[in-house]
């Protein structure tokens, strides 16, 4: 009850902030609520996953030229198409752009071509405060046995609020957005994943403000958002909600708790997309949460798709040093050969998607 009350008060605070500052928002910048709802209404119910090919341990391994793997991407997005998924959330990486600007954009276009072939829209993510801070271009480390996301990278990580990096980060965001600002294969730009994570808290607010400013200067056709994820981060949450065209959020709790999150966030009047859910051992499962999300007309993107180098079949806080397969997978839906982890889950997903 305490958690639900806190969610309510946080949502109320954000709503009051929105109302109080609406006249201060630059005209033509944040989408009006009516525009956001009209945009959302043109699409069928959004369902999908956060996607990285099973052959990549992190964002750099996905995007660098030497390890970009369109064959695996094509095969695995084929699995997604087969169960009716129509949206994938995909993380970009600033150092991949800095290393090879033209090549990076070419690979983004190649990814989008593959996704479009499978009738999948893409939600791209720029920055991220999760997991490892010290990224290096080149060959990426091998996975640590039995450890969830052992090689996933923060971006900019330990370069956060480094004034020497700011110009590069601005050029990166501006270049990618300018190149793809009219691309109908892109659904939405998710500017910053879980700002404040890894103990950063309010230290991420400066970059959060900057990335919104940079993106609004480009003014892409697609909406902008940064997902709400930690209800204790009042300053970050209010800024994210105030500046997002579409409200996105993360929730790994069970159905009852997750529904209360939705009820609170609906007070904003904007469309909702859950861009991370489904952690089986925490009670967030396809069987109980996905039907509820569809009933509430909330977009549903679960974390994890094909088991692979990210090791997300293992839980965040429960490593398995012997590398054995857990009895209950934490995330992910398919084995590498396309065999479902649980056939009944795949049948449910197909049913939810009208397949």
Name a few traits of the molecule:
alpha/beta, hydrolase activity, hydrolyzing O-glycosyl compounds, carbohydrate metabolism, 355 residues, hydrolase, signal, eight-stranded parallel sheet, glycosidase, TIM Barrel, 40% helix, single chain, globular, 8 strands
Describe this structure in words.
There is one protein chain. By secondary structure, this protein is an alpha/beta fold. It has a single domain (42-249, 298-352), classed as TIM Barrel (Alpha-Beta Barrel), CATH 3.20.20. The chain is built from twelve helices and eight strands. Strand 7 (272-276), helix 11 and strand 8 (299-303) form a beta-alpha-beta unit.
Summarize the structure.
This protein has 355 residues and is an alpha/beta fold. 40% of the residues lie in helices and 12% in strands.
Q: Which structural class best describes the helix and strand composition?
A: alpha/beta
The name CATH uses for the topology is TIM Barrel
End-to-end Cα distance, whole Å, is: 38 Å
Helical fraction: 40-55%
Q: Can you give the mean pLDDT?
A: 93
**Tally of distinct domains:** 1
Protein name: 1,4-beta-xylanase
GO molecular function: hydrolase activity, hydrolyzing O-glycosyl compounds
Pfam family, one: Cellulase
GO biological process, one term: xylan catabolic process
């Amino acid at each position: 009850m305490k958690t639900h009350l806190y969610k309510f008060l946080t949502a109320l605070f954000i709503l009051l902030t929105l109302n109080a500052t609406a006249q201060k928002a630059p005209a033509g910048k944040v989408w009006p609520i009516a525009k956001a709802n009209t945009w959302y209404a043109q699409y069928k119910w959004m369902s999908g996953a956060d996607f990285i090919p099973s052959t990549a341990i992190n964002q750099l391994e996905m995007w660098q030229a030497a390890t970009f793997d369109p064959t695996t991407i094509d095969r695995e997005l084929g699995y997604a198409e087969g169960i009716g998924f129509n949206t994938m959330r995909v993380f970009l990486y600033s150092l991949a752009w800095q290393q090879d600007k033209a090549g990076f954009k070419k690979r983004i276009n190649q990814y989008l071509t593959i996704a479009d072939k499978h009738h999948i829209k893409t939600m791209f993510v720029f920055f991220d405060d999760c997991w490892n801070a010290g990224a290096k271009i080149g060959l990426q480390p091998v996975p640590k046995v039995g450890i969830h996301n052992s090689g996933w990278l923060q971006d900019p990580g330990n370069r956060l609020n480094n004034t020497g990096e700011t110009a590069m980060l601005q050029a990166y965001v501006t270049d990618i957005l300018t190149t793809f600002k009219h691309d109908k294969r892109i659904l939405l730009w998710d500017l910053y994943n879980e700002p404040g994570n890894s103990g950063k808290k309010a230290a991420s607010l400066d970059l959060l403000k900057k990335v919104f400013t940079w993106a609004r200067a480009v003014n892409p056709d697609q909406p902008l958002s940064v997902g709400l994820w930690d209800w204790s981060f009042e300053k970050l949450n209010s800024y994210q909600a105030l500046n997002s065209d579409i409200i996105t959020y993360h929730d790994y709790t069970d159905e009852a708790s997750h529904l209360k999150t939705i009820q609170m966030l609906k007070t904003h009047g904007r469309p909702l997309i859950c861009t991370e859910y489904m952690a089986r051992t925490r009670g967030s499962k396809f069987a109980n949460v996905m039907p509820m999300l569809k009933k509430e007309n909330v977009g549903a993107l679960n974390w994890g798709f094909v088991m692979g180098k990210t090791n997300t079949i293992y839980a965040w806080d429960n490593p398995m040093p012997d590398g054995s397969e857990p009895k209950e997978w934490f995330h992910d839906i398919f084995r590498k050969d396309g065999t479902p982890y649980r056939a009944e889950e795949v049948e449910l997903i197909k049913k939810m998607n009208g397949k």
